[in-house]
Amino acid sequence: MILRFLALLLMVWPLAARGTTVAAAADLRTTLPALAQAHEAATGQRITLVFGSSGNLAQQAMNGAPYDLLLMADAATAQRVVAAAPGAVARPYALARLALVVRPGAGVRDLNGLKAALIDGRVRHLAIANPAHAPYGLAAQAVLASLGARAAALPRLVLGDNVAQALSFVTSGAAEAGLVALPLARQAAGGLSVVPVPPALHAPLVQTLVLMPRADAAARAFAARLTGPQGRAALRRAGFGLP
Fold first, then answer.
1. Do residues 183 and 211 share a domain?
2. Residue 211 and residue 194 in contact, taking contact as beta carbons nearer than 8 Å
3. Which residues of the chain have pLDDT under 70?
4. How many Cα atoms occupy the beta-carbon half-sphere of 17 within 13 Å?
5. What is the C-alpha to C-alpha distance for residues 233 and 240, in angstroms, rounded to an integer?
6. pTM for the whole thing?
7. pLDDT at site 87
8. Which of 28, 48, 107, 123 is the S-S candidate for 32 at Cβ 3.0 to 4.6 Å?
9. Counting beta carbons within 10 angstroms of the beta carbon of residue 199, is it exposed (0 to 12), middle (13 to 18) or buried (19 or more)?
10. Domain with 162 in it: what CATH number?
11. Is 87 left (phi over 0), alpha (psi -120 to 50) or beta?
């Protein structure tokens, strides 16, 4: 773990010296690059994106990784960073949405069908993000509990390091179904069925940004773009809710 963190620092530190480094939850993989490119084109400011699970990125930030801006998938993780970094500022930027994704031929059309398929064994592998450090994983567990399917799902869970990896298990065929981020699911290849999960089935995931104490005017300008009209329109189109 220490060697991996040191390797990350060696990769990120030179980039951070040349611009703004943004550590972002994996559910932003299909949304954030275009916003960063537009910002670079408009301002000339270099934006470096680092994606991962919110828990892992937060821990790296608290251990000294040179991130200027964190885009977390939930408020609780963001607040842990703020508590550990005097001068950091947090504010919400989006509401996370989950989706059930199912491979062709699995015979699951909705959440009730998922419960039945988990019980009778038609779904042998269900992919979710690791709840130990990924807010989407905790939300997926809550969805399964709301369905009364948590016990049936437990021996069938395949855990991704983050929600993007969980989705990749489904697209690759390693899992028949998954509970993942709706914005990622909408962009997935492979003819997957995508069923949005009602937000009432889990506690709200209020995605929250953190401007670190090291953040300069360039980092604040990118945060303003994300929370301004352009960013909100892009987030809405991708499938996020807005706070």
1. no
2. no
3. 1-18
4. 5
5. 10
6. 0.90
7. 96
8. 28
9. middle
10. 3.40.190.10
11. left
pLDDT tens per residue, range 138-188: 999 999 999 999 999 999 999 999 999 999 999 999 999 999 999 999 999
- How distant, in Å, are the alpha carbons of 110, 111, 171 from that of 146? 14, 10, 25
Range of the domain at 226: 2-95+205-238
| 118 in any annotated domain | yes
| Domain co-membership, 65 together with 157 | no
Q: How far apart are CA 228 and CA 225, in angstroms?
A: 5
Q: What is the CA radius of gyration of the chain?
A: 18
Please tell me whether residues 88 and 124 are part of one structural domain: no
Tally of structural domains, the chain: 2
Query: In DSSP terms, which residues pair with 48 in a beta bridge?
Result: 21
Beta strands in the chain, from DSSP E residues, in sequence order: 20-25, 47-52, 69-72, 89-95, 98-102, 126-129, 157-160, 177-181, 193-196, 206-211
